Structure formats: C-alpha cells, structure tokens
Amino acid sequence: MTHLQEELFKLQDIAYRDFHSSLMPGVDKEAVIGVRIPVLRKFAKEYAKSGETEQFMRELPHKYYEENNLHMMLIAQIKDYDKCISETEKFLPHIDNWATCDSPLPKCFDKNKEDVLERAKNWIATDATYVKRYGMGVMMRLFLDEDFKEEYIQLVASVKSEEYYVNMMIAWYMATALAKQWDAAIPYIQEHRLSEWVHRKSIQKAVESYRITPEQKEYLKGLR
User: Fold this and answer.
1) How many CB atoms are closer than 10 A to CB 12?
2) Whole-angstrom distance between the N-terminal and C-terminal Cα of the chain?
3) Mean pLDDT score of the chain, rounded to an integer?
4) At 76, phi and psi to the nearest 5?
5) Are 22 and 34 in contact (CB under 8 A)?
6) What is the greatest pairwise CA distance in the chain?
7) How far apart are CA 89 and CA 70, in angstroms?
8) Residue 26 has what pLDDT?
C-alpha cells in the first residue's frame, strides 16, 4: 500500500463505504475505501501542497475510487487552463463511475469556454461511456445559460446509446434544459425526439425539479 493509500484509509468510514458502494453497482466494493466527500476535499487541499501530486497524477490507473476522486479534485485546483485541460484529457479515459465523472468542473473552464466547447463535442462523440457523459455534463453546466445556442440541445439529444449512465445524463440534461431554456427544449418532448426511456426519464426529472413551474409540470405530465 502506498503512503497516500494509507492516509486515505485513516479517513475511512465503513458505514459510508457500504452505503455509497450500493449507489455504484458497477464498481467493486473492495475498490471503495469509504471517505466522505467533504473530508476528501479537505484532504485534497492539503495534499496539493505536498509536492507529491505530479507523481500521483502520472500513476494511472488508480486502484481506489477515492484516488480517482482525489485526482479530479487536484485537476479542479489547477488554475492554468492549458495544464488543467491537458490533465483532464489524460484522466478522462480512466473514469469508471458516475460519481467521479460528475465531479465539479475546474473554475478555469469558465474563462475558456470556446476551447472547452470544442473539446466537449469531441468527448460526446467518443464511445467511452464516462468520457461521453462528462462531455454532456460540461454542456449542461456551462452552456445552458448566457452562452446557450439551440444547436447544443440537438448535440446532446441526438446521442444514441444503450448505456444506462449515458442515457441518464441525457435525461438530466434535458430536464435542466427544460428549466433553463424551456422554449428550445420542449419541442424535443412534444415531438418525442428522444428514445422512449430517455423521454420518460426526462419528464420525471423535470417534474421533480423545483425550477419547473407547477403549470409546466402539469403540461409535461400530459406528454408522458
């Protein structure tokens, strides 16, 4: 066991490991240490000062789920965009679960949206489940507000997949689009442009959202 792994095991919460493992059926329980996210986030801030991060980030793939989350947290702390996006590209193919995939985006992405947009398009076009999901997550988080264009919804809605975690992200994206860009998103539901499963899941998630008005929710229920 590496020194880093020993330090992570000191932060272990067995009950949390058992619970969180149940939420990730595709991840071996033995690969989950059981460190709560706030605790790991605090650890990441200190570990970033240790001088050991460069070596750790080169040692791929990692053994434990928490090491993957730590890796994402370290990437998010990188302020230089060129270095940050380079490390992101290196690590994305090694993501093996939805929780790591959905980690908060680096803040430097906000100031480099033109480049991030092109990369997100490429990520969405790949066959790798979590690279594709990450790309759609980027589109949902960064391009549904002031930088929105209607073509972005088509980019996500046109994805066809048999992968549960890809389809779940499409539904999450569509529900968020309905909340933020109703007029552009609603035709995809009205005209059943999505697969049946994604269509129903999008409506379900939208109806559960506090950002959708009661009137919109009633209308969506009629489109199931």
Assistant:
1) 15
2) 51
3) 97
4) -65, -25
5) no
6) 57
7) 16
8) 86
**pTM assigned to the model:** 0.95
Per-residue model confidence as pLDDT tens digits over 23-78 = 998 899 999 999 999 999 999 999 999 999 999 999 999 999 999 999 999 999 99
Instruction: Please give the average per-residue pLDDT across 134-162, as a whole number.
Output: 97
- Helix 164-180, helix 129-142: angle, nearest 10: 10
Residues 6 or more apart whose Cβ sits within 8 Å of residue 181: 144, 148, 150, 153
User: 221: alpha, beta or left, given left = phi > 0 and alpha = psi -120 to 50?
Assistant: alpha
Q: Identify the DSSP state of 60.
A: -
CA–CA separation, 21 and 38 (whole Å): 17
DSSP annotation of 70: H
Cis status of the peptide bond prior to 106, with omega within 30 of 0: no
Neighbours of 10 (CB within 10 A): 10
The string of DSSP letters for 128-148 reads -HHHHHHHHHHHHHHSSSTT-
- Which ranges in the chain belong to alpha helices (H)? 3-9, 14-22, 37-47, 53-58, 65-76, 81-91, 98-101, 113-125, 129-142, 150-157, 164-180, 182-190, 196-208, 214-221
pLDDT at 135: 98
Cβ partners under 8 Å of residue 100, min gap 6? 65, 68, 69, 72, 130
